[in-house]
Amino acid sequence: EVQLVESGGGLVQAGGSLRLSCAASGLYDDDYAIGWFRQAPGKEREGVSCIANNDGSTDYLDSVKGRFIISSDNAKNTVFLQMNNLKPEDTAVYYCAADIWADRGCTVANGTSHLYSSWGQGTQVTVSS
Predict the structure, then answer these.
(1) Are 23 and 37 a contacting pair, CB within 8 Å?
(2) Where does the pLDDT of residue 28 fall: very low under 50, low under 70, confident under 90, or very high at 90 and above?
(3) Which region, left, alpha or beta, applies to residue 48 given φ > 0 means left and ψ of -120 to 50 means alpha?
């Protein structure tokens, strides 16, 4: 069973930074991807970023490109999302999720969340103006 645990959320002022962590267990194949999604109150869930384990390829939501960086520490089975220059519109609950069938890259494009079969409990990120 795949288990994902997020940490690192919190309250930060606009322009500040946070680093989210996603600790994964139960992933025994190389062909998987970890994605970060977020959901703000009253809004639909959207994909933020992902990283494919087998080749390290990544994908980003346009609005976070140049501000967020996804990385992984395979030895620790942990994926990080470094969030810089945070904006109030980044406020949301952030979830990490695993796509266990990702043999060719990854995507967080609109409508692809169904590819991710395992989800963490989420961590709140609040950016004050």
Answers:
(1) no
(2) confident
(3) alpha
